[in-house]
Amino acid sequence: MRNVRNLILTIIAVVLFAFFLDKAPELLNGYWQRILNLIAINAILALSLNLIYGITGMFSLGHAGFMAIGAYVSALLVLSPAQKNSMWILEDIYPWLLNVNAPFIVSLIIAGLVAAFFGLLVALPVLRLGGDYLGIATLGFAEIIRILITNTARLTNGSLGLKGIPAYTTLFMSWSCLGIVLLCTVCMLRSNFGGVLRAVRDDEVAAKMMGINTFKIKVIAFTLGCFGGGLGGALMGNLITTIDPRMFMITQTYNVLMIIVVGGLGSVTGSLIGSVLVTTMLEWLRFVENPITIGSINIPGIPGMRMVIFSLLLIMVIIFRREGIMGMREFSWNIFFPKKKITDVGSKTETVLELENVKLKFGGLSAIDNLSMKIKHWEIVGLIGPNGAGKTSAFNVISGFYKPTSGTIKFLGKSIGGLSPDEVCKAGMSRTFQNIRLFGNQTVLQNVMIGSRIRQKYSWWMTLLPFVFTDVIKEDAEARAQAMNLLDQLGLDAFADEKASSLPYGAQRRLEIARALATRPRFLLLDEPAAGMNPQESEELMKFIRRLRDEFDLTILLIEHDMKVVMNVCDYIHVLDQGVHIAEGTPAEIKANPRVVEAYLGAGAAEGGAA
Amino acid sequence: MRKFLAALMLVLMLCVVASADDDTIKVGVFNCLTGQNAFGGQLELEGTQLAHTLNPTILGKKVELIIVDNKSDKVEAANAVTRLIENDKVNAIIGTYGSSLAMAGGEVAEKAGIPVIGTSCTNPLVTLDKKFYFRACFIDPFQGAGAATYAFRNLGLKRAATLVDMSNDYSVGLGKFFRDSFKKMGGDIVASLFYQSGDTDFTAQLTALIDAKPDIVFLPAYFAEGAIVLKQAKELGAAFKFIGADAMDNPEIVTLGGEAVEGFMHTTFAYDPSMPEMNATAKAFTEEWNKIHPDKAPNVNCALGYDCYIMLKDAIERAGSAEPAKIRDALETIKDLPTVTGMTTINATHDAEKDMGIVEIKGGKKTFVGIVVPEV
Amino acid sequence: MELNIFVQHFINALSLGSLYGLVAVGYTMVYGILRLINFAHGDIFMLGAYFVYFATIVYKLNWGVGVVIAIILTTICGLLVDRIAYKPLREAPRISALISAIGVSFFIENFAVVVFTGMPRPVVQPPILMKPIEFSNGVRLIPLGILVPVVAFLLVGALLWLLYCTKPGLAMRAISFDIETTRMMGVSVNKIIALAFGLGSALAAVAGIMWALRYPRVEPFMGMTPGIKAFIAAVFGGIGSVPGAMIGGLILGFVEIMSVAFFPTLSGYKDAFAFLLLILILLFRPTGLLGEKLEDKI
């Protein structure tokens, strides 16, 4: 019901706005029309950079370069041969270029595609870099693009630039483009794929463990963002009607970056608000440069004052609203209506996991030395040992974060040694982390839904037009139902729409397990599930782990320091000490093993016998 | 936040109170008052303002100058011109330094049918296919040829090289026309090197030039960069001469370059405060300028800013009206109008045809050497 | 290419590279401790150059006195910037501080246009530094060309001493490692950060002054290109590493000069070469030449 209401409200708003735009040429003078145009273009640029940076978390300073590509491609396609002929006064234009021509709309699409293609070329090598290094590498590419445009005069007319580009960017054109971009972005972000993008931003490691090939996701998001950059650049060129390489310096990227940060990094609504605000503010502040008369006092106009005030306002906004105007929130019609609550699932071999002589070395340091073990189906197995014994390293090797230096790991009869975490996940294994790694900015439900992404069949590009590819809607609904079901089973259903980071500690632990279960694993690795729990909570946890095994038909390997938990819940126990496998057996055997006691006494944690 | 907004609204309302009546002629000025080209735009604005102070009325009507900044940025230039036309309803516009900015603004004015007179936007593309754009300056090909003619014919030098700012249309254009024209006359171009706007170290290019042994190097740079190039050339012991163009015409070049600019020549518009014989307009301009700005000498940017206003005044008076379309028609027929930079005639492509002067730095002073007639 | 021409190119490259290095060292100093890409570094650099201009040309002070005053004033400006625009954002996401830095950069540039106007101003070059030394094969060297690398290397040495042999240096390194733990150890983190910022600004001032000496002109936008170049140099070397920044600066200088020296017809592509090399280096060493490896903790 609520969705239908929101849809109707959205349609009404869009129709009203379209009506306004239709009448705008009569209502507004050219100056305001131009500003409205700029708002739409800035919003497209902001949305595309926000997709790259705000949503997927890749620090890119290269937007201006992709804008330049889009602007040039479109301009070269829409300029007439006669215009081209008269413009290349320094060098001769390439003859083939002279007659290349396309209608404006086609040129826009080609501009976006060419920019996206270059984006892909850039993304493949540099997206391996992280953080600021990615920023500087993308900045470098943008500069290279600009230098190439300056120097290839036969293609681009060099620093003379192009002029007389037909002013095809009308209000209708720019706002329809924005409408389409906005629709596609919102649809994509609302689909489970959008959740995946945010998951990559929030915690790449955890996303990998959800079976997500994070590199591929980043490449897709970057390329899509570049498409938007090219489109925005093309619209800009056809609005200003003249372009040259100096238009696309780093300051252009700063402008877009400013918009998305002021609006709220990661918020689509924020990008829209930011572009309205920054664009109008810059124009509106012009008055400070005009002579002002207040009463009898005459203040002469000071050139430059406008930017001084603008930059001060910018600093103030950032200091007092550091998350930007919207933060990560989005606009929703629901804010006008009182809130209501909503409330609504998922085989046998002998040996599931087999490690043989697995070694892991970091330089000269041996983290795991010759570890061999077999885990049978339906077993709950404990992995214990004093601090620094190599337990988490063993987990990381099994789940694909580290490549074993030597030895083999067989999972369900297949060798998985050296596979990446997402591949391991797809093979049917999932894990939790010692320090909880949730996608903190997303809701509990979204966190769990990301886990089901690996089972969804639709491709990412379908999410741009879910009304055409209804599979997206269908499968997402399924994923949602399954996720709700899981939450219900784990007693988290009441929290479904809360932000994951706002949950109490114990619930966060359970949520991490729920998320792991959403990938439908056959084998679950739990890294210190009882850490930070009081005795009563760990009591519940023990029951919970058994129930998990029974209800989800799982095999479980767990690391735990709380000996009470280990001794009660595990069918079988392996003990590590300084990377060496020193003992294995049933809880009773382990308790009686002198080597284990010795290892623990050394670490001063010998309450192993308490149970 | 609410208080802050209220304060802003108050300020806004105070600004809207600016009044307007029919008896004024509104002249918009869009120029780069901030940003990378601010040094040129500010000088031109001062020239225009001086002309306005001396001629506050045209046809008995008060002239109001409306000044907007284009931040040396294309998007801003287009916005600025739109604002002048749509919000301020100007009759004509003067501006700007920087050809790319002129092109961005020109498109808007063209559509609205408001005449614009460009100050020093010398790129041939500025007025190409434009009915409403004019300029007070000559264009790059003419000037490039002028420098080549002077170097080859007057100085008798046969081996030349160019050092060009690759990212500056002005520099690239002049360099190309210099090379073409120099070769056509029978000279040799021994090297052609590039740098990018914003560079400050030219030692690599200069060392490569020293290696190529030219007689003269054509340096179509802005004066601030040019002065640094000349300084570094001197440090490296370069033996060749340098010749530049009108963007080097600024009294500050001597303060910036010191001894290193001694003997440097450049083409420019036929005006310099050091000229022995000045026409009446130029004399009046120089005197009035010195009264207002006793601490700095005028240069061609100031003069061109001034000339634009004079051309506009002439056009409005001959048209007998401040209607934009009529001003346009009158601008097209400007012929032998005495301006600070010599006699101005507007040709078929809306460029000013005027004399080209040569200035040389002698004894730490800009000295007007004479007029050169380019072999185009 | 004849040997003497090559030697001349080499000298030019050393001089340019050490200047880049000098700017980059200040950049990396602030980054290493605050993890803040200080986009305003180039503008603080510009202020340093302007203060020298005012001291020596406008107020006609002795050159040495002018330099000292300029360094002090620039440091104060840097501290003010930190206090007003960065300190309130210490706990905020890094991007907020970055945007604040862009805001500061816009502010300083435009404030400079309003106050100093856009006109480029000259700078006094002490004649003793400018008298060329000519070698028999035609290679020329000005004393300033030696002074710049000497100052740069001395400063790098002093910084390394400060970072590795003094208590505040230890505190700085500790902060860059883990700010919360350092606070817990009873180090007054804010003071140390202010010290680092002041040092960074003083270094920017020295670089600005050296730059203005070498290329004797000051204007409001003079910091833009060196700022970006220094950023690249710092990344080349591994951002946060002081010797890395110096090496990065030298590499950048050599690439720029030598690409023109060996491919004069491609001199328009000079900056593209530098960026290409940067990206290649990053692909093989994702955290720069001397940058510490950042392991993602699982």
**Whole-number radius of gyration of chain A?**
29 Å
What oligomeric state do these chains adopt?
heterotrimer
- Specify the structural class of chain B: alpha/beta
The level of helicity of chain B is: 40-55%
Q: How much strand content do the residues of chain A show?
A: 5-15%
- In which order are the strands of the major sheet of chain B placed? 8-7-9-10-11-15-16
| Global Rg of chain B | 21 Å
Fold topology:
The complex is a heterotrimer of chains A (611), B (376) and C (298).
Chain A: H1 2-27, H2 30-55, H3 63-78, H4 81-87, H5 95-98, H6 104-126, H7 131-151, H8 153-156, H9 171-190, H10 192-202, H11 204-209, H12 214-240, H13 250-263, H14 268-284, E1 292-294, E2 297-299, H15 305-320, E3 351-362, E4 365-376, E5 380-384, H16 391-398, E6 406-411, E7 414-415, H17 421-426, E8 429-431, H18 444-451, H19 471-489, H20 505-518, E9 523-527, H21 535-552, E10 555-559, H22 563-569, E11 572-577, E12 580-585, H23 587-592, H24 594-603
Parallel strand pairs in A: 5-10, 5-11, 8-9, 9-10
Antiparallel strand pairs in A: 1-2, 3-4, 3-6, 6-7, 11-12
Chain B: H1 2-16, E1 24-31, H2 38-54, E2 57-58, E3 61-69, H3 74-87, E4 92-94, H4 99-112, E5 116-118, E6 133-135, H5 140-154, E7 159-165, H6 169-184, E8 188-195, H7 203-212, E9 216-218, H8 223-235, E10 241-244, H9 252-257, E11 265-269, H10 280-292, H11 300-319, H12 324-332, E12 337-339, E13 342-346, E14 352-353, E15 356-362, E16 365-372
Parallel strand pairs in B: 1-3, 1-4, 4-5, 5-6, 7-8, 7-9, 9-10, 10-11
Antiparallel strand pairs in B: 2-3, 11-15, 12-13, 13-14, 15-16
Helix pairs in contact in B: 2-11, 3-4, 5-6, 11-12
Chain C: H1 3-34, H2 41-58, H3 63-86, H4 94-116, E1 121-122, H5 127-130, E2 133-134, E3 140-141, H6 143-165, H7 167-177, H8 179-184, H9 189-214, E4 217-218, H10 224-237, H11 242-262, H12 270-284
Antiparallel strand pairs in C: 1-4, 2-3
